[in-house]
Amino acid sequence: LFAPEIEEEANLHFQRIYRSEVQIEAVIQMLKGFKASQVQREQEVFGCMIHNLFDEYRFFPRYPERELLITGRLFGSLIQHQLVSSITLGIALRYVLEALRKQVSSSMFKFGMCALEQFKHRLVEWPQYCHHILQISHIRQSHETLITFIHQALAQPRKDTP
C-alpha cells in the first residue's frame, strides 16, 4: 500500500509517541499539517499512519496498558480533531463503541473510555451514537458523570436544526 520510506517515517512517528518523545497534541498538529499539505509525501505519511493505526486495532487487546492508553488518546484525538471522516470516522466510532461494550476491568474498555474522553465534546453531533452508549449497562451503572454529560449533549439543540 505504501512505499517503504513512507512506512518507515510513519513507524518512526509511532515510536516517538510510544517512547514519550513527543506529546499526542504535537502529533495531532503534525497530522493536521500533513493532511492539509500540498506535499504528496506528507499526505502519504498521514494516510499511512491512519491506515496502520486502524489496521493495528485487532492487536490492541495484546497491548500493554500504558501503550493502549496512549493509543486511546491518539485514537480519540483523531476523532476530536476531525482527522478522520466519512467511512473512516464510522469505523473509528464503531471501534470505540465495541471497546466500551467490553468488561469494565478489560484493557479494551479502558482504551474505549480513554478514546471517548478525547472526543466527548463532539457527541452532540451523533445522537444515535449517544443512545448506543447509553444502552451499555455497565457504563450506566458506573460512569454517572459520562451519562450526565451524554444526556446534556442530547438535550442540546442540533446545529443542523432550524
UniProtKB/TrEMBL annotation:
Q: Which GO terms describe its cellular component?
A: CCR4-NOT core complex; P-body
Origin superkingdom: Eukaryota
Q: Which residues form the CCR4-NOT transcription complex subunit 1 TTP binding domain?
A: 2-159
Q: Name one Pfam family in it.
A: CNOT1_TTP_bind
Q: Which InterPro entries match?
A: CNOT1_TTP_bind (IPR032193), CNOT1_TTP_bind_sf (IPR038535), Not1 (IPR040398)
Molecular function GO labels: molecular adaptor activity
Q: Can you cite a GO biological process for this protein?
A: negative regulation of translation
Q: What is this protein called?
A: CCR4-NOT transcription complex subunit 1 TTP binding domain-containing protein
What organism is the protein native to?
Answer: Hemiselmis andersenii
Phylogenetic placement of the source organism: Eukaryota, Cryptophyceae, Cryptomonadales, Hemiselmidaceae, Hemiselmis
